[in-house]
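Posting for a labmate who doesn't have an account.
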Amino acid sequence: MRWAKALYLSEKTAKKKDKIIRKAERGIGMVSIYFISLASNEQNLLDIFHAAHLKQPVFYKQNPFVVGIASGYEEALEMTRQILEDIYAETGGFRVREYFEAAD
């Protein structure tokens, strides 16, 4: 897994960021944690996946580039909206992949 330098975090996940990242890199599932990553295909902008996916070895072959960590699915949806709004406000478009790759 790769992590964006400008990682989006909620109030709940900001306090536990390092612990969440350590667990994620070890493949340890977390009940309410969702990750937002660059889309696994070119037709989408972002993917949202539950931490339980980390228990599947095949998942790591995709080498996701995580841009946000949320607590709960609703929070993940809200964070995704915020990410897209921020990118549009700054660039005038939705070139999400280019936006995060340029920041790193």
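Reply:
Got it, the structure tokens are right above this. The beta strands are 2-9, 33-38, 46-50, 65-71.
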